[in-house]
Amino acid sequence: MPDLLLELFSEEIPARMQAKAADDLRRLVTDKLVAEGLVYEGAKAFATPRRLALTVHGIPARQPDLKTERRGPKVGAPDAAVQGFLKATGLKSLDEAKIQRDPKGDFYIGLIEKPGRDAIDVLAEILPVIIRTFPWPKSMRWGARSGKPGSLNWVRPLHAITATFGLETEEPDVVKFSVDGIETGQTTYGHRFLAPAPIQVRRFEDYEAKLLDAKVVLDPERRKDAILTDAKQLAFAQGFELVEDQNLLDEVAGLVEWPVVLMGSFEPEFLATPGEVIRATIRNNQKCFVVSDPKTGKFANKFILVANIEASDGGKTIIAGNERVIRARLSDAKFFYETDLKTKLEERLPKFEQIVFHEKLGTQAARIKRIERLAAEIAPLVGADVAKTTRAARLAKTDLLTEVVGEFPEVQGLMGKYYALAQGEDASVAAACEEHYKPQGPADRVPTDPVSVAVALADKIDTLVGFWAIDEKPTGSKDPYALRRAALGVIRLIAENALRLSLMKVAASALAGLSVQPAEASKLPSDLLAFFADRLKVQLREQGARHDLVDAVFALGGQDDLLMIVRRVEALGKFLDSDDGKNLLAGIKRASNILAIEEKKDKRTFDGAPDAALYGLTEEKALAKAIDEVKAEAGAAVAKEDFAAAMSAMAKLRPPVDAFFDKVRVNDDDSRVRENRLKLLNEIRSATRAVADFSKIQD
Amino acid sequence: MDASLPAHMRPERSFQGFILALQRFWAEQGCVILQPYDMEMGAGTFHPATTLRALGPKPWNAAYVQPSRRPKDGRYGENPNRMQHYYQFQVIMKPSPPNLQELYLKSLAAIGIDSAVHDIRFVEDDWESPTLGAWGLGWECWCDGMEVSQFTYFQQVAGFECAPVAGELTYGLERLAMYVQGVDRVYDLNFNGRDGDQKVTYGDVFLQAEQEYSRHNFEYADTAMLFEQFKMAEAACKKYLDAGWREGGNRKQHLMALPAYDQCIKASHVFNLLDARGVISVTERQSYILRVRELAKACGEAWIHTEAGGAA
């Protein structure tokens, strides 16, 4: 079966858009082919800075013929209806129609045969539409045609379209169409500098090979492999190690058609600047890789660049040019760093008075004061020194105003730590400048130093309470202030450090510190708590744990000690994995179901202690006894926060509960006995509420 | 590069030779070579030959040097490549020709940048000027890892769609010349291409000016006067715009777009000076930018109702 080759040759496509564009092209073309009844065998798309290419192989040469039946008017219908029917079906007269009988009468049926079209004609119809409506994130007009309405929009000027279709054994045909004055053909171009001449191509195989001869590596994966291999070798040959960087590799591979890896160096004096700053400079501004010295584990005074040409001087000029720029950039970075060191962090604080954090939440200065106060309150609860915590909270944001962070936002926090250490701050205070931002995501490390923990909690809780107060909560996919991440951060800080604190109290205190107060301030902490519960559920779900157990624990009410909630959930999860747990859950559910039905029937609840005098059966007495014991034992265990022990106690309920349901009929004819038995069932439920509301657990 | 040039005119030896080579190259591509606009402005884009001429259907090809003033970038002459006054070389071609990239590469060859040994790259950079209400897509052009030009296809200027689209090239002249001459400090550039006591450096010409203007921009510029000037320029711009509509404001033809636009340029520069003096707060800043943009938009609207702007 024939294959399609499509190439869209343009001016330089932004690196960050290439992968998605290739994917979109493949998806749009193949979806449309399938919709047109052309089921293909395989498709692959590629992107370089100057072209998007697609090969679809095994496309049937023709669409299958389509036969459809169309129901017409009743036999004997007025002429207007008949004429309409003939026109719609293309029949010459009613003689060509069939008559079909159904309960409503006899109807004309027209058979419409739509012969399949040649695939190449279908392609000539669908490809220009796809090109005209291509989903670029940003597109533009250009040239003389842009003076008229309806001109083509493309990511950058589009120059040529190659589109061929045919069998491997034959000379393929050009899929003929034109878009905005560009006629399809078989001509493309090689590398902009190394082989700019036009190239005639037939089909994908010779296309890819001829491009390679013309110094264009079509497949981005091959370019990446080549860059990575060469970069590693080049570093290794000089006794260094490449510092790998996938995002940078992806970007660089999108900036070249013919990658040539070269190594340059800079003055070793620059290594006195923090490594992260060197890396950010070389990476962000110059899109070059850094290398490390395996002996010291630190960066070496070398960098690796990826050029797009094989230069006639072997790359000497290119290396020298890049070295000049990197030297100038590192010199700037060094200057920024040294300038920053001249100003004490606390001297930067007054400037925050002028910086608005959020128009409804006031300035950064006000925010820092709030965090400082809250952190000092949290400090004793997490075992942190109050003075150090206060100091850390005051300094933690100051590096935002430094030159280095202004230039490289990604080193915020880290620079704070360096500057704090340089001005002789306590090690914990310095660490907190960096760590109070953590954890940034599910994979990020959770700080353990109590000072960092206190400031991190204060920072996140202030943010959450603040945005809750001004009603800027996350909705759906929108979470511009990363509040979900902040809440998850709080959960992990508490759980992983085994901290005991009442979230409601801390939230209330944070709220009291705000200058704006929401309309229903008293509801805010519990509202926020529900958000934490949701986050906890999401986190457990992502870990593959049972998130319904969170509901079972929260349903007990008054739970705002996250650590205890997490512990209860863990113990409950383990218990429910055991046979005892599963059976007890079944028993409790049965009891709850019976109670629910009877409560509805009698329109009353069955609270209150059962009357021991009314027990008639041994199983009743045994259950009552077991409930009393378990209540005492589980209650004591919960008081000691030993949830595993509480669960073990709970397990003792299982045999008497099973025996009760086996032998005892709850709906006894004697209404007093029945009521007493229902009260007993209710007791099971209340006994188990020592650890969780089992009715909220899903089966 | 033209081999017949005397040594002191060669672009790799002489800053003025470098400028002349660029002018000559673009003259040969059919551009009119203009002289700098006689007002202070932050970038070559502000020149009416770009901002206004980019609007309307009439073809327009021009190239010129524009002294660019960025008061905030002053460093008292102490930074090797940051200045409050520098030169931009600006090319505008409307409609953008299909071979604009090739022309650009040839212009680099004309100033001594050979694509056989230099790594030239087009790296995504979308351009936007909030004060001009303008945006376009294009690249920053890299030579061996250094940004040497901006390349933009204007999509909108002064809030109006460009139809047809103009292609704009901006060369940072000092930076490029430093690269070609192989010097690390802008003030060491050889300005006239001569040697010995005949040699004039960029520092000889501009160092004192950088020091004086840095003092002025950061410390002494009269802010009370500048605030007043901003208001006056804004009012004058509006006044000229109102007065320029022919026959009692039927908004069909405008007769004073250019003088009105001068006042918009003026307001923009005064704002930059006030900004450098640090007397404009973050929130005010936004509103000043908006006020200049409103002027630019109104001037753009007037322009498209003039003869050169394409009014019938």
From TrEMBL, chain A:
GO molecular function: arginine-tRNA ligase activity; ATP binding; glycine-tRNA ligase activity
GO cellular component: cytosol
InterPro entries linked: DALR_anticod-bd, Gly-tRNA-synth_bsu, Gly-tRNA-synth_heterodimer
Every DALR anticodon binding domain range: 588-686
PROSITE patterns hit by this protein: AA_TRNA_LIGASE_II_GLYAB
PANTHER family given in the database record: GLYCINE--TRNA LIGASE, CHLOROPLASTIC_MITOCHONDRIAL 2, GLYCYL-TRNA SYNTHETASE
Assembly notes: Tetramer of two alpha and two beta subunits.
Identification of the protein by name: Glycine--tRNA ligase beta subunit
Lineage: Bacteria, Pseudomonadati, Pseudomonadota, Alphaproteobacteria, Hyphomicrobiales
Gene field: glyS
Automatic annotation (TrEMBL), chain B:
Localization in the cell: Cytoplasm
Single GO MF descriptor: glycine-tRNA ligase activity
CDD domains on file: GlyRS_alpha_core
Alphabetic keyword roster: Aminoacyl-tRNA synthetase, ATP-binding, Cytoplasm, Ligase, Nucleotide-binding, Protein biosynthesis
Cellular component annotations (GO), alphabetically ordered: cytosol
Catalytic activity: tRNA(Gly) + glycine + ATP = glycyl-tRNA(Gly) + AMP + diphosphate
PROSITE patterns for the chain: AA_TRNA_LIGASE_II_GLYAB (PS50861)
NCBIfam families in alphabetical order: glyQ, PRK09348.1
Record protein name field: Glycine--tRNA ligase alpha subunit
Source species: Bradyrhizobium frederickii
